[in-house]
Amino acid sequence: MPLAAALGRVTARSLAAVADAPPFDRASMDGFALRAADTLGATEAAPRRLRLNAELLTCGVAPAIAIEAGTATAIATGGVIPRGADAVVMVEQTETEEGPEGPVVLVRRAAAPGQAIAHAGSDIARGETVLRAGALITSREIGMLAAAGLAMVPVVRRPRVAILSTGDELVPPGAPLPPGGIYDSNAAILAAAVAEHGGEPVPMGIHRDNEAVLEAALCRALEAADMVVMSGGTSKGAGDVSHRILGRLLPPGVLVHGVALKPGKPLCLGAVGRKPVAVLPGFPTSAVFTFQEFAAPVIRALAGLPPRSEAATEAWLAVRTPSEAGRTEYVMVSLAEDATGGLAAWPLGKGSGSVTAFSQADGFFAIPAEEQGASAGSLQSIRLIGGAHALPELTIIGSHCTGLDAILDLLAAEGIRGRSLAVGSLGGLAAAKRGECDFAPAHLLDPKTGRYNRPFLAPGLTLVPGWRRVQGVVFRPDDTRFTELDGRAAVRRGAADPGLLLVNRNAGSGTRILLDGLLGGAKPPGYANQPKSHNAVAAAVAQGRADWGVAIRSVAEAYGLGFAPLTDEHYDFFLPEARAERPAVRAFLAALASEAGQARLRGLGFSPA
Question: Ranges for the MoaB/Mog domain (predicted)?
Answer without folding.
Answer: 162-301
